[in-house]
Amino acid sequence: MKNSSFKIYAPAFDMPVHSDAEAFGVATWLWMHAKNHREVPLLALDHMLLPAINLRQYVLVLEEAQHGTRPIGYLSWANLSAEAESRYLNNPLKGLSNQDWNSGDRMWCIDFFAPFGHSRQVLALCKPFFSKASARYMYHRSHEQGVRVMTFTGPRVDPAYARQWWADRPMMAAPPTPPVVSTNGINTLASRRS
C-alpha cells in the first residue's frame, strides 16, 4: 500500500513484503539504528524479531524519497495468554517463547521503533490497522521515569466494552501503582520496574 510518500508492509492485513528475509533485514537495520535497541544483544533478535516476522505480526513503514526508499519504522505485536504475559512482564527480553506469541487474547505491542524522528508519522500510519483492538505496551524511558505499562484502545472500540475487556484481563504480574487516565483518554498503568 502507498500512502503519499510512505510504503507500508503489513502482511497480517494483506500488505505483504517480498520475503521474510527482506522484512528481517529491514527490521534489523532499523533495530541497529534505534537508540533503545542497538545495545541489546543480537541474540535477542531470535525471540523479539523472528517470531513476529514468521507469524506476520508486524508493520514496516518505508519512506519514498528522491534517491530511493528507506525504512523508517517498525511495529510488532503478540497475542499472549495470562501466563505468557506474566513471563513477558518479568523479563521482556527473554520472556516469550515462539509458542507464546499467539497463546491468548491479550494483545501486546512488543516492539516499536522509528529511529529517524518519524514516530508520529509511523504511529499514525499504523493506527488504522488497530482501530478495533485493545492492547498493552511497555513504555521504555527507564532513564527518565522507569518502565510503564500503558494501554491502547482503538477508536472503533466501544468505551464500555473496553472497560470490561480490561477488567476481565488484569495483568498477572501487576505493577505496584494504580491505573491513571491520561489527558487523551487512553488508560495508563504507570509503574516503576526494578
**N-to-C CA distance:** 42 Å
Strand count, sense and closure of the main sheet? 9 strands, mixed
Instruction: Provide a count of the helices.
Output: 6
CATH level 3 topology:
Aminopeptidase
| Total individual domains | 1
Spatial sequence of strands, sheet with the most strands: 1-2-3-4-5-6-7-9-8
Number of strands: 9
SSE order, as H and E? EEHHHEEHEHEEHEE
Percentage of β-strand residues:
25-35%
Fraction of helical residues: 25-40%
**Could you name the ranges where pLDDT drops below 50 across 5 or more consecutive residues?**
176-194
CATH architecture label name: 3-Layer(aba) Sandwich
| CA-atom Rg in angstroms | 16 Å
- CATH top-level class: Alpha Beta
Gross geometry: globular
Q: What class do helices, strands and sheet pairing give?
A: alpha+beta
Overall mean pLDDT: 85
Describe the structure.
This protein has 194 residues and is α+β, with helices and mostly antiparallel strands. The protein has a single domain (2-189), classed as Aminopeptidase (3-Layer(aba) Sandwich). The chain has 6 helices and 9 strands, in the order ββαααββαβαββαββ. The protein has a 9-stranded mixed sheet with strand order 1-2-3-4-5-6-7-9-8, with helices on both faces. Strand 8 and strand 9 form a beta hairpin. The radius of gyration is 16 Å and the shape is globular. Mean pLDDT is 85; it is low at 176-194.
